[in-house]
Amino acid sequence: MTSPSSSVDGPGSREPAPDRSSAPITAVPVRYPERWVAAGVVLVLAAMFVNMLLTNPAFDWPFMFEHMFSDPVVRGVWVTLSATVLAMLIGVLLGILLAVMRLSGNPVLVGVSWTYTWFFRGVPRLVLAVLFGNIAILYSTIHIGLPFDNYWMPLLGLEGDARFFEINTRTLLTGYTAGLLALALSEGAYMAEIIRAGLQSVDKGQTEAAQALGMSRSRIMRRITLPQAMRVVIPPTGNETIAMLKDTALLAYVPVTIELFYQLQAIGTRTYQIFPMLVAACLWYLAITSVLMVGQYFLERRFDRGERGVRDRIVGGAH
User: Where is the ABC transmembrane type-1 domain (predicted)?
Assistant: First the structure.
């Protein structure tokens, strides 16, 4: 049996204590050769793709750049941008109204909002664009007046009709307005769900606390609910804007002859250079969506300042 005095760490130990001042251990990083192999394969594929872009005569880059900045195409770009802005503006306003109706608690308003969202989210936008483009088959004229005038006016001995305003449907719903209306109404259904989710993401306790302090409902919505809901609403709204920009190509099927994709397609059909014009359409949409993505990034940072400040304080306190 070993006595306590003979232990290494005991007070009476005869063995020297281990030297703890040795050099630190050098960590050797783990090698991942498969990463270099994968990187080499990707570089080879990228080089093959660039070679195809530069050498394949089907692209015809001089012809493409000559026509993709022509006057009709530039006008088509502005029409596409205007359709995107107007459709999103109408869609956002309509989405706010539908979201408030859905959250109102009134069963009639809830039912109307749900039915609208159900219909316009279920029907493809291409079908809606063609449907609104042919709406004159259903209504030759659009008028405002007293209902059932064909029945009660003859009983009163009156002639004519009780219409205060009337317009021909073909005059009102041109290709551009019909397509714009289809896109805007469809977008309203999607924005209603996005805005509803944003409003519901705000803790109800904050609203109750603000009401206890005597704040009005409009001020609570403006100062408390909306600023926090925007952090949830902005990212999907940015995605919807980019999707709307691309969906404006559906106006070519109404048809809207001054739209970007229609103009590029017309040039390709007229010159028998269809593929270069399709590539030009891709380049135009990529350029515009890239600008929108940059704007979305800065807008998200603008509404995320408070959250980032809290995270920075937490990280700073941890250090």
Answer: 77-296
Residue 49 lies in a domain: no
pLDDT at 18 over 70: no
Percent of the chain residues topping a pLDDT of 90: 28
Q: Mean pLDDT, the chain, as a whole number?
A: 81
Is the sign of the CA dihedral 196, 198, 203, 207 positive or negative? negative
Report yes or no: 276 and 63 within 8 Å, Cβ to Cβ. Answer: yes
- Report if residue 123 sits inside a domain: yes
- CA quadruple 94, 100, 102, 108: dihedral positive or negative? negative
Residue 175: give the domain boundaries.
65-301
Is 189:102 a contact under the CB 8 Å cutoff? Answer: no
- 193 to each of 12, 52, 91, 96, 127, how far by Cα in Å? 79, 44, 12, 9, 21
Please give the average per-residue pLDDT across 96-113, as a whole number.
Answer: 90
DSSP 245: H
Domain count, the chain: 1
CATH code of residue 189: 1.10.3720.10
Can you state the percent helix, strand and coil of the chain, rounding each to 5? 75, 5, 25
Distances (CA, A) of 179 to 72, 169, 174, 176, 207: 20, 14, 8, 5, 40
| Structural domain contains residue 170 | yes
Supply the pLDDT for residue 42: 95
